[in-house]
C-alpha cells in the first residue's frame, strides 16, 4: 500500500523508510509523511523523539497502535492528498494524529475527519508527542533499549542518550559485550555534533554521552578530522566534548559523560568540566580496586595510581562527582582482597556507587576461572560493600544541606516535583524532591533550590 500516492510534483520528498524490528511488547507508531523535504525533516525529528521514548516505528499501518500523518498544504491537490491519506489511516488503523502544514487549519481537517485524535500545526513537536502519549503510552525497557539498534534512544523529552560509538576492544573476562557488539566502531565527529545540534533544537535539556568505552572514542578512526562549522574537529573524546560542550552551554543545557575508562588522557576532560562545558560528573566503571582481582578480570586499566588520579581530578575541579560500579565475589576474590576494596572506598569516597554480585555469563571467560566464591559469601560482601557506600553517600549528601543546587525537573504529580541535581544521572542516581511551591513547574524546567533535608541517597529542597 502506498502512503504517498504517485505524484509528478517536484517538491515531494521520498517516502520514509524504516527497517528496525520492534522488541517484544514495544509500542509501535506508524508514520505517513507527505509534502516536501522540509516536512520530511520534521517527520524525522518526530521519529527521533518517539524512538527516544521507547517507541518502535512502522513505515506503514501494519502492526501500528496509532498513526501520525504529516500533511502538506502547499496546493489544493496537496490538501486533497492529505485528506485522503488521513481517511485511509483512519480506515486502516483508527487512531490518527495529524500534524504538518495542513494542521494549521484544524477545522478544515476535523470538518472532513472528525474522528482524528488530535490536530497540530507544523513543527509543533511537543503537541504531537503529547497526543501520541495519550493514545499509546510509552513502555521503555532500559535494560534492552540503552544498547539498541542504531538510532534508537530511550529518554523522556527533556533528556536524551547520545551514543558516540558501538562495540569495545577490551577483553574483560566477565564481559561478553565485544562478542555481541563487535569491536569499537566510532561515529564521525561531525555526525555526533549534528545530532547534538538537532537534539538541542528539539528542546532536549540534557544530553548523556554513552558508549561501551567513551574514553576510547575515535581510536579506531585514528582520531581523524571531520569538517564542522568552517573548521575541523578531531575524533577524540577531548575535542568532541569541547565542541559538544560549547553547543550545550549556549543552549543552557547539560552534557553528562558516561562509561569513561580511567585512561591518563581522561584528565584532559576535567578542565572542560571546570569551564562549564560538561557537567562535573564522571561515570567510571572501576569494577574493583585490588590489582590482583583486576588482573584476573583482565581490566584495561590498573588501579595502582587511581587514587592519585582521583585526587588530581578533584584538585582541578572541586565540584566533580564520581560514579562507579563494582563487582564483589569475583572468582578467586579473597577476604583480604575484598577488605582492600573497602579500604580503597574509604579513601576514594566516591559519590555514587553501584555494586553487583558476580555471576557467570554464558560465553564469558571468567566462568572457567578457579575458586568461585560461595553465594553466601558474595551476599555478605555485597551487604558490607553497600553499607560502606551508603555511609559515604549519606555523609556527602548531609554536607549539601543548606547549599543552593541547580536541578532539572523529571516528573510532577500531586505530591510534588521529582528532580535531579547536576550530580545525578537519570534512573541510576538519587533525586531531589520539592514538595512545596512546585505547582508552576513543568517537566524539563531547570530551577535553583536550597537543600533543606538529606537521606542516604536523596535530597529535599525548596525553590529560591
TrEMBL record:
Transmembrane segments: none
Limits of the TRAM domain: 398-464
Domain Radical SAM core: 154-395
Cofactor: [4Fe-4S] cluster
Listed Gene3D superfamilies: Methylthiotransferase, N-terminal domain, Nucleic acid-binding proteins, tm_1862 like domain
Keywords: 4Fe-4S, Cytoplasm, Iron, Iron-sulfur, Metal-binding, Ribonucleoprotein, Ribosomal protein, S-adenosyl-L-methionine, Transferase
Residues where [4Fe-4S] cluster 2 binds: 168, 172, 175
Domain MTTase N-terminal: 27-137
PANTHER family for this protein: RIBOSOMAL PROTEIN S12 METHYLTHIOTRANSFERASE RIMO, RIBOSOMAL PROTEIN US12 METHYLTHIOTRANSFERASE RIMO
Name of the protein described by the UniProt record: Ribosomal protein uS12 methylthiotransferase RimO
Native species: Thioclava kandeliae
Amino acid at each position: 500500500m502506498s502512503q504517498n500516492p504517485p505524484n509528478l510534483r517536484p517538491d515531494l520528498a521520498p517516502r520514509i523508510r524504516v527497517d528496525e524490528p520492534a522488541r517484544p511488547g514495544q509500542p509501535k507508531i506508524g508514520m505517513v509523511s507527505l509534502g516536501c523535504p522540509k516536512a520530511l525533516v520534521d517527520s524525522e525529528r518526530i521519529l527521533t523523539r518517539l524512538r527516544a521514548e521507547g517507541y518502535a516505528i512502522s513505515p506503514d499501518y501494519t502492526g501500528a497502535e496509532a498513526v501520525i500523518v504529516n500533511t502538506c498544504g502547499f496546493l489544493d491537490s496537496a490538501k486533497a492528498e492529505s485528506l485522503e491519506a488521513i481517511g485511509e489511516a483512519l480506515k486502516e488503523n483508527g487512531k490518527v494524529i495529524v500534524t504538518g502544514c495542513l494542521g494549521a487549519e484544524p477545522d478544515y481537517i476535523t470538518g472532513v475527519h472528525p474522528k482524528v485524535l488530535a490536530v497540530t500545526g507544523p513543527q509543533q513537536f511537543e503537541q504531537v508527542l503529547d497526543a501520541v502519549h495519550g493514545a499509546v503510552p510509552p513502555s521503555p525497557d532500559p535494560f534492552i533499549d540503552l544498547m539498541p539498534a542504531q538510532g534508537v534512544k530511550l529518554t523522556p523529552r527533556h533528556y536524551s542518550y547520545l551514543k558516540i560509538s558501538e562495540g569495545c576492544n577490551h577483553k574483560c573476562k566477565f564481559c561478553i559485550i565485544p562478542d555481541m557488539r563487535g569491536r569499537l566502531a566510532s561515529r564521525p565527529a561531525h555526525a555526533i555534533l549534528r545530532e547534538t545540534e538537532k537534539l538541542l533544537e528539539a528542546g532536549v535539556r540534557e544530553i548523556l554521552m554513552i558508549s561501551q568505552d567513551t574514553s576510547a572514542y575515535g581510536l579506531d578512526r585514528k582520531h581523524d578530522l571531520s569538517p564542522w562549522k568552517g573548521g575541523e574537529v578531531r575524533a577524540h573524546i577531548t575535542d568532541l566534548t569541547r565542541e559538544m560542550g560549547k553547543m550545550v552551554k549556549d543552549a543552557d543545557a547539560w552534557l553528562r559523560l558516561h562509561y569513561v575508562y580511567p585512561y591518563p588522557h581522561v584528565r584532559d576532560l576535567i578542565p572542560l568540566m571546570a569551564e562549564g562545558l560538561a557537567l562535573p560528573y564522571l561515570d567510571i566503571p572501576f569494577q574493583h580496586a585490588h590489582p590482583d582481582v583486576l588482573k584476573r578480570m583482565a581490566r584495561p586499566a590498573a588501579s595502582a595510581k587511581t587514587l592519585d588520579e582521583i585526587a588530581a581530578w578533584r584538585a582541578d575541579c572541586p565540584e566533580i562527582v564520581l560514579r562507579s560500579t563494582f563487582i564483589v565475589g569475583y572468582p578467586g576474590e579473597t577476604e583480604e582482597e575484598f577488605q582492600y576494596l573497602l579500604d580503597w572506598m574509604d579513601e576514594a569516597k566516591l559519590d555514587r556507587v553501584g555494586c553487583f554480585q558476580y555471576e557467570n555469563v554464558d560465553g564469558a571467560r571468567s566462568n572457567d576461572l578457579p575458586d568461585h566464591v560461595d553465594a553466601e559469601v558474595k551476599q555478605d560482601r555485597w551487604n558490607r560493600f553497600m553499607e560502606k557506600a551508603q555511609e559515604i553517600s549519606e555523609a556527602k549528601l548531609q554536607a549539601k544541606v543548606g547549599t543552593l543546587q541547580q536541578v532539572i525537573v523529571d516528573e510532577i504529580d500531586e505530591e510534588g516535583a521529582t528532580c535531579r541535581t547536576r550530580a545525578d544521572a537519570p534512573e541510576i542516581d538519587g533525586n531531589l524532591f520539592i514538595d512545596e511551591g512546585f505547582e508552576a513547574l513543568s517537566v524539563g524546567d531547570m530551577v535553583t533550590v536550597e537543600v533543606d533535608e538529606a537521606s542516604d541517597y536523596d535530597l529535599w529542597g525548596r525553590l529560591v
